[in-house]
Design brief:
The chain is α+β, with helices and mostly antiparallel strands. The protein contains two helices and four strands; from the N terminus they run ββββαα. The protein is 19% helix and 23% strand. The strands form two sheets. Strands 1-2 form a two-stranded antiparallel sheet. Strands 3-4 form a two-stranded antiparallel sheet. It starts with 5 loop residues before the first strand and ends with a helix. 0% of the residues are buried. The model has no long low-confidence stretch (mean pLDDT 78).
């Protein structure tokens, strides 16, 4: 498949056809590297896949890594 570099806003880019993106979720981060005349696009394993994944993980996280400050302890009042 041939692709052309096109103007996208103030940048230039390549539009990736939908069939090449199956298995990847919107918001996923990728690493772009260059090897000679080739551009290599790889998933960034350290990036979060989606906000929903992170929210689900946080809601089941019992590590209690929250920072409690004076406002939380003394000034906040639930009604």
């Amino acid at each position: 498949m041939k692709l052309k570099i096109t103007k996208i806003g103030n940048s230039q880019g390549v539009r990736i056809p939908k069939e090449f993106l199956q298995g990847f979720s919107e918001g996923m981060e990728f690493k772009l590297s260059r090897k000679g005349d080739s551009l290599i696009l790889s998933p960034n394993p350290k990036s979060r896949k989606t906000w929903e994944d992170q929210i689900a993980k946080a809601s089941h996280d019992d590590s209690n890594d929250f920072i409690i400050n004076d406002f939380d302890e003394n000034d906040w009042e639930w009604k």
